[in-house]
Amino acid sequence: MAAAAAAARSPLLFLMVMLIAAMMPPPAAEAHVQIGAYNKTCPQAEEVVLKEMTAIVAKSPELAGAVLRLFSVDCFVGGCEASILLDSTANNTAEKDAPLNRGVRGYEVVDAIKAKLDAACPGVVSCADTLALAARDSIRLTKGPFIPLPTGRRDGNRSVAADVALNSPPPGATIADIIALFANKFNLTAKDVAVLSGAHTIGKARCSTVSPRLYNFGGQNGSSDPTLDANYTDILRGQCKPGDIATLVDLDPTTPAVFDADYYTLVAGKRGLLSTDAALLLDPTTSAYVAGQANATSSDQFFADFATSFVAMSKLGALTHHKGEIRQVCSKVNPPSSPSSNAAARSYHLTATAGLAIATLAVALVL
Ligand code: HEM
């Protein structure tokens, strides 16, 4: 009330206060993703994503795993802000061209879905949310849980290859390295490590990833990783011949296209494909989780745990409100003059608030 009276007495002061407020960022408490963020602006968004993902996975089932991984590598480097989708430019090598991301695939899926979303609601849904929802749907389309997912992420404009190694477990990472990385960089727990690794119940890895466990392990001619079941090693040697870097092998050969808790039975039986899967047995928390799920009679607990950890991962570094932009093309930041670019959004914010201040001043003068 006192502020309103002061404003009426001194409209110029009020105008200055409004202009300063316009230049300040929104309070941190506002910066949240939320369930149904597109309910008003694009109510059919989640339906459009599901319909397109259903068609894509029906045609190419292996893309479910590809998209799920694409989302995780986005979130772990700079947050879930679609930085993985940006192309390198003349002056910058982007995340997607970092050596650790060489096997990442599924970019075309996001482009196809974004095109459908833009046809339904032009310029409304971000690439970050397109990817997040597509990853969420890849889980349900492979018979995993339906996970209600908060949306409202906007797209970032930083994608630097050097950031990838700083935020990813390096090849040969120990379980202690992974748990420390998750705790220190992402505020995620050892349980989250065990639960999210369960995503390896679908999808594939390249022979270049697997072969170090199969041949000349530890630099010794003819030896293989002793933590890998010997019969499974023989099967994998049949799939990944020496020198083959490109062939893809199933992470979960028992039920490769089904999102279930079977992964933990494999890991417990020394049949986890990646060395980081096998490493889950070397920490008390993660090994207890593996044992619990390997002996579970249903996937229910794993599904509930996965939903919790997946939502936590999906919130990492999310950009909301006037931060970031809604990219027109997922592989490129918007040109500076476009309506949804960072600069344009800021200038819109300023113009709108200044307009409001001028209108208020006019009313105050009339009164
Ligand atoms: C604990 C940390 C993790 C490590 C060290 C890790 C490592 C890997 C590696 C090395 C591959 C195979 C890549 C290749 O050979 O091309 C892979 C594939 C995959 N990862 Fe992970 N991952 C981790 C966490 C996650 C998370 C959090 C998710 C999702 C929630 C995920 C989902 C997948 C999927 C679905 C694939 C198969 C991709 C495809 O089919 O193209 N991973 N991961």
From TrEMBL:
Domain Plant heme peroxidase family profile intervals: 32-334
Record GO terms (molecular function): heme binding; lactoperoxidase activity; metal ion binding; peroxidase activity
Entries under Pfam families matching the protein: peroxidase
Gene Ontology process terms (BP): hydrogen peroxide catabolic process; response to oxidative stress; response to stress
Alphabetical UniProt keywords: Calcium, Disulfide bond, Heme, Hydrogen peroxide, Iron, Metal-binding, Oxidoreductase, Peroxidase, Pyrrolidone carboxylic acid, Secreted, Signal
Residues noted as binding Ca(2+) 1 in the record, renumbered to the chain: D74, V77, G79, S83, E95
Entry superkingdom: Eukaryota
Protein location: Secreted
Signal keyword on record: yes
Main localization category: secreted
Signal peptide: 1-30
Classification via InterPro entries: Haem_peroxidase, Haem_peroxidase_sf, Peroxidase_pln, Peroxidases_heam-ligand_BS, Secretory_peroxidase
Residues that bind heme b: H200
GO cellular component: extracellular region; plant-type cell wall
PANTHER family cross-referenced by the UniProt entry: PEROXIDASE, PTHR31517
Its job: Removal of H(2)O(2), oxidation of toxic reductants, biosynthesis and degradation of lignin, suberization, auxin catabolism, response to environmental stresses such as wounding, pathogen attack and oxidative stress. These functions might be dependent on each isozyme/isoform in each plant tissue.
Protein name (Swiss-Prot/TrEMBL): Peroxidase
UniProt source species: Setaria italica
Organism ancestry: Eukaryota, Viridiplantae, Streptophyta, Embryophyta, Tracheophyta
